[in-house]
Amino acid sequence: MADESAAARSGQFGQVERQLGTVEMIWRVGAVRKTAIILVLAIAWQLYATYLNNPLLFPTLSDTFQALYRRTMDGTLPNRMWTTLKILLTGYAIGTILAAVLTVLAINTRIGTDFLETMTAMFNPLPAISLLPLALIWFGLGPASLVFVLIHSVLWAVALNTHTGFTSVSQTLRMVGANYELRGIPYVIKILIPAAFPSILTGLKIGWAFAWRTLIAAELVFGVSSGQGGLGWFIFENRNLLRIPDVFAGLLTVIIIGLFVENVIFQTIERRTIAKWGMKG
């Protein structure tokens, strides 16, 4: 025993606990690692475009930033962003509300469950972009057609994940709701939503991703309304004019907005709900 104590004091058994250095502590921060990845990609972009030396094929990152700055200062990109985001938020909100209504009906009635499962099986695999011709015929050339397509993108993904989360709630929590005589909407709000929130948030993320991609693609096809389109139309018209740095500036704007929503908005919601409640694995 004395020999073991002496060995431990002399460090023969190795260091039990090691103090992390400053660099290691900084590297443990997820935002730092993600920023490093983005910087590496940016440097690779600049080096490859410089080596290629063909602005009409692949402009440098510096040229893209100059185009981004120029089109932001003249008000073009902010206006196009606002046009796109207005349509996106409208379609996303309506799709989420409809998904909530369908899910509440599904968990309270048998016919509601059958309806949601049937409709999800029918329409969830259907690409939203395939509805563009019908939307154009039904609603004409304008925001209404885009909103219709967005609702399809959001509705089934959110409804499917929310319903899956609700059906996965443990029987213990359901019995707690029954003991408090909760029924209908109060039961959903106080028992099912908090317990199923990880699945609900996943559905909202998937719905957002589907809606964002669908909207940009739809605007590339018929996103102009009264001579003013969104980001997708900005990319399309600059491609026709061979303003390739402006095209890349539009694409970079799409990427920046996507990163902001995913890493700021959704991460903040997750940190203040799922992580705070101890539901994150």
Descriptive report:
The protein is mostly helical. It folds into 2 domains: 2-43, no CATH class; 60-272, MetI-like (MetI-like fold), CATH 1.10.3720. The protein contains 12 helices and no strands. It has helices spanning 2-10, 22-27, 30-52, 61-73, 76-108, 110-123, 132-139, 143-167, 171-179, 184-222, 231-240, 244-272. The mean pLDDT is 83.
- Terminal CA distance reads 41 Å
Q: What proportion of the residues form beta strands (DSSP E)?
A: under 5%
Shape: flat
Query: Mean pLDDT, as a whole number?
Result: 83
The domain count comes to 2
CATH-defined topology of the largest domain: MetI-like fold
Quick recap of the structure?
The chain is mostly helical. The chain folds into two domains: 2-43, no CATH class; 60-272, MetI-like fold (Orthogonal Bundle), CATH 1.10.3720. Helix content is 78%, strand content 0%.
